[in-house]
Design brief:
Radius of gyration of chain A: 31 Å
Helix content of chain B: 55-70%
Structural class of chain A: alpha+beta
Helix content of chain A: 25-40%
Distance between the termini of chain A: 97 Å
Strand content of chain A: 25-35%
Oligomer: heterodimer
Number of helices of chain A: 4
Largest sheet of chain A: 6 strands, antiparallel, barrel
Radius of gyration of chain B: 15 Å
Number of helices of chain B: 6
Shape of chain A: elongated
Number of strands of chain A: 12
Order of helices and strands of chain A: HHHEEEEEEEEEEEEH
Chain lengths: 273, 166
């Protein structure tokens, strides 16, 4: 206490000066609107810097929450996006709001592999969240695979990095369609088979999902054609494609739920019998 | 002792009245109003209590501001300059064994003049900087302070020479 008092006594002139200076600044501010404006400008400069600094720190601690909010928003946007890829296919149905059967649900990828020839993914939602077998799984810029097995809280997904899976694809703004198959080894390199050599396709064409399955809606962009050869002997193109997104580097995905899945499936069963 | 305090108070009041009623209305060349009230601050004895002196500087500026309706520029300028006075004295008179007691009694004329010049310059620069308070008015601030410094200096030198040295 004595020391504090000593400091006060020692610097009494400076303390008095600063006190009276701040008093006269208030006096100045109160008396002259011009000075008030100017002083407020200066204080705004300081306070805005200070607030932007504190805001940047606060933002860092809010990242988790913000991330979740954005994911939720993305989920909504994704469901709208996949619908608007092909409005002509999913027009308004009479007496019903829409006949677009697909809905999306966001999931986290908790295990992902790409080293083997038949890769699998584990996601952190399962039957409790309404995940069923044979649902499609997509990412921000492409598709990831199909749900294979489901437990209560988890599900396994056959990755498209699996040589057993064939995805029905089309070329954007063209009529041709084919099947997308992983070549193995490099995660982004795929080949497209079963494209008839009479169809017109160019290098650089965008590949989209074909919609010829109950898994994926029409028109999700997947990648581009990087190389094509017209093989005249067997009448099919030999096409190399590259995906927009590397499926092995993903942490977030969306599961696509098709509400008409059972209807379509029962028809398929009838056909098989 | 008592008569000295009375003299001080008398010159304090007189200078404020003279400043507000006379020197603020002079307008030499249209814009120069010499600030005579600084005379009180410069001739106040150097060896008195500094804390009280700062307070006097504040009160003096406050009265001038209050009576001449000028925001708070006189207050801030005279407060700052009275806070800085020991430093100005140190640099004007140098570190000598003979500490200056008062501007009026000290025989070193050059040092007295230098002290006055620095004191008035700092005051005027602060005053005009706050009165205009804008970086765009930099040249006007410099011009106004320069001319006003000259006139204030002459006036203060003249009037301080009228004081009777005891």
């Amino acid at each position: 206490m004595q020391r504090i008092l000593n400091v006060f006594v020692k610097y009494r002139n400076s303390i008095l000066y600063l006190f009276l200076l701040s008093f006269s600044l208030f006096f100045l501010k109160a008396n002259s609107s011009f000075h008030k404006l100017k002083l407020e400008k200066i204080s705004l400069l300081f306070s805005s810097n200070l607030y932007s600094f504190s805001n940047s720190i606060n933002r860092y601690f809010r990242l988790e929450k913000e991330n979740q909010r954005l994911q939720k928003e993305n989920e909504v946007l994704k469901s709208i996006q996949i619908k608007f890829n092909a409005p002509f296919l999913y027009t308004e149905r009479y007496n019903n709001k829409t006949n677009f059967p697909f809905d999306v649900q966001k999931v986290n990828i908790i295990k992902n592999s790409f080293q083997s020839q038949r890769n699998y993914i584990i996601i952190d939602k399962g039957a409790a969240s309404g995940i069923r077998r044979e649902m499609g799984v997509i990412s921000a810029k492409g598709i990831i695979g199909l749900v294979q097995a489901v437990t209560d809280n988890y599900a396994s997904v056959i990755s498209i990095l699996n040589q057993d899976i064939k995805i029905n694809v089309r070329f954007k703004n063209r009529t041709a369609f084919g099947s997308l198959i992983w070549k193995g080894k490099i995660p982004k390199k795929f080949s497209i088979e079963d494209v008839v050599s009479t169809s017109s396709i160019k290098k650089g064409d965008t590949i989209v999902t074909g919609g010829m399955s109950s898994y994926f809606p029409y028109g999700i962009p997947l990648g581009v054609v990087t190389n094509l050869e017209n093989n005249i002997q067997n009448g099919y193109y030999k096409i190399d494609a590259e995906l927009f997104e590397n499926p092995s580097e993903l942490y977030k995905a969306y599961v696509i739920e098709n509400s008409d899945f059972n209807e379509i499936n029962s028809l398929m069963q009838n056909l098989k019998q | 002792m008592n008569s000295q305090i009375l003299k001080m108070i008398g010159s304090f009041v007189l200078l404020i009245i003279a400043q507000v009623l006379l020197f603020n209305q002079i307008n030499i060349f249209g814009f120069i109003n010499p600030m005579l009230y600084l005379l009180f601050l410069v001739m106040y004895p150097f060896d008195k209590n500094q804390t009280f002196y700062i307070f006097i500087g504040f009160i003096l500026g406050f009265f001038i501001d209050f009576l001449s309706q000028t925001g708070g520029a006189h207050t801030i300028a005279s407060l700052t300059v009275s806070y800085l006075r020991p430093i100005i004295i140190k640099y004007s008179y140098g570190l000598t064994s003979e500490k200056p007691k008062s501007l009026l009694t000290d025989p070193r004329k050059t040092n007295n003049f230098f002290f006055l010049l620095v004191f008035i310059s700092i005051h005027h620069l602060i005053y005009f900087a706050i009165a205009y308070f804008s970086a765009d008015a930099f040249l006007i601030i410099i011009k106004n302070s320069l001319f006003t410094i000259i006139f204030s200096l002459i006036l203060i030198l003249l009037i301080s020479s009228l004081y009777k040295v005891e």
